Amino acid sequence: MRSARRPTPSHGGNITLAPEPAIPAPGSAEFTRDYVRANRPAAFASLVKDWPAVRRWTPAYLADLTARLGDIQVPYRSTPEHMARMDLSRIQQGRMSLGALLMACADDPGGEELYVPGMALPEGVGPGIDIEKPSLLVPFQTFGTTIFLGRNTRCIGHFHPMAHALLCQVQGTKKVWMFPPSELNRLHLFPAWSQGFFQSEANFYGDLAPFPQVARAKGQMYELHPGDALFIPMHWLHVPEGTGWTTAVTYWWRPELGEWLRSAGSLRALVGIGGEFVRRGLARRAQ
Fold first, then answer.
1. Which DSSP helix (H) or strand (E) runs through 276?
2. pLDDT tens-place string over residues 133-153
3. Most exposed of 89, 95, 219, 275 (fewest Cβ within 10 Å)?
4. Which of 248, 132, 261, 18 lies closest to 8, judged by CA?
5. Are 136 and 28 in contact, with CB atoms under 8 Å apart?
6. What is the share, in percent, of the chain residues with pLDDT greater than 70?
7. What are the chain's domains?
8. Tell me, what's the pLDDT at 21?
9. φ/ψ of residue 51, rounded to 5
């Protein structure tokens, strides 16, 4: 059995977190019992190392592969590094040709952030031919597969209100800072009834002085390398940061009712989801 791999210490803004080791992947029964039902994160070393995507998914390869599918327009964004308090309206958002974005990453992997924050990946089509659902997830009915890619990527601190996730790192290195649901009150989230109820106002990439509670929050840090995977339980706030060219694939599945009820983040998620339904209903009436 492979020994656990321990990453180097790292800093997220003014937070220093002890690095957690990537451990050998458990069987699906152990994963379900000790991690999913316990709402406990973990990084699994080399879980998807045999995916063809791990060696193939360079920007040039993906640009050639997706070109056969036609001109695909994708959302992209960048997170301001020097903004002390996150303003969701100032996180650059737009759409551009996926091919153009990939070639920009190929030409200048050290350039400013270019981030595709999630794109559905159909199985057996295009890049989907290079991946396979990990055996850990056999007991679960996953409802989506999402690809995240870009260069020097930063993501606002957020949690998943209604889903567990398994993030599989394909190329590049990514660091992920994580905080349990019991620490959400210290993480300066947007109001529970607002559109950003699952996101933090704090800029974890900048000066955290305006958010003293964040520095006191108890969290963990994981460093992912190609082939590694990270289990992100429901309601765990996480802050991913990629260096250079990175790609990752995330699988999603719904928690059981007992897992939901045991989570300290359930009330906030319930209020936030209710607020979202109300906003959508009002928007439909206004049309």
1. helix 266-286
2. 999 999 999 998 999 999 999
3. 89
4. 18
5. yes
6. 93
7. 17-286 (2.60.120.650)
8. 95
9. -60, 135
Q: Are the beta carbons of 149 and 36 closer than 8 angstroms?
A: no
Structure tokens at 166: 């398994």
Q: Which of 139, 131, 136 is nearest to 248 (CA)?
A: 131
Give the model's pLDDT for residue 64: 87
Structure token digits, residue 67: 């070109």
Structure letter (DSSP) for residue 105: H
The DSSP 8-state label assigned to residue 161 in this structure reads S
pLDDT of residue 72: 84
Q: Which secondary structure element, helix H or strand E, spans residue 30, and what is its range? A: helix 28-31
**pLDDT, mean over the chain:** 89
Q: What pLDDT is recorded for position 123?
A: 64
Say if CB 66 and CB 98 are below 8 A apart: yes
Q: Are 157 and 199 in contact (CB under 8 A)?
A: yes
Cβ atoms within 10 Å, residue 99:
19
Cα dihedral 103/166/118/102 (nearest 10): 0
SS3 213: helix
User: What is the pLDDT at residue 133?
Assistant: 94
Closest CA to 224 of 156, 178, 164: 178
Q: Which two tokens stand for residue 120?
A: 């559905």
Distance CA 236, CA 119 (A): 22
What pLDDT is attached to residue 15?
A: 65
pLDDT < 50 regions, the chain? 1-11, 13
3-class secondary structure, 237 = strand
